[in-house]
Amino acid sequence: MIDKLRTAYPHLGVAVYAYKPGPFVVLELHAPDSDPVQIHGKTVEECVLSAFPELAEESKPESIFD
């Protein structure tokens, strides 16, 4: 998921961490001309898809009925 994010948005710096014990991870995005943005979620994928829902469309498996 992080590889997809970095490929789709090469101008962003990306950090993922879970400093505090518990159920949440943090996705931190760094753009060249703005302050970092933090997204909290239960998984890295949840964080990425919360920030970039368009990446979900690419990861859906194709249906055998399509």
Secondary-structure map with pairings?
Layout lengths: L1 H7 L4 E5 L7 E6 L6 E5 L2 H8 L2 H6 L7
Antiparallel strand pairs: 1-2, 2-3
Helix content range: 25-40%
Biggest sheet descriptor: 3 strands, antiparallel
Computed CA radius of gyration, to the nearest angstrom: 14 Å
The total beta strand count reads: 3
Low-confidence stretches: none
Percent strand equals 15-25%
Order of helices and strands: HEEEHH
Characterization of the model:
With 66 residues, the protein is of the alpha+beta class. 32% of the residues lie in helices and 24% in strands. Strands 1-2-3 form a 3-stranded antiparallel beta sheet, covered by helices on one side. The radius of gyration is 14 Å and the shape is globular.
Summarize this structure as a short list of keywords or feature phrases.
66 residues, alpha+beta, three-stranded antiparallel beta sheet, 3 strands, 24% strand, globular
Summary, kept brief:
The chain is of the alpha+beta class and about 70 residues long. Helices cover about 30% and strands about 25% of the residues.
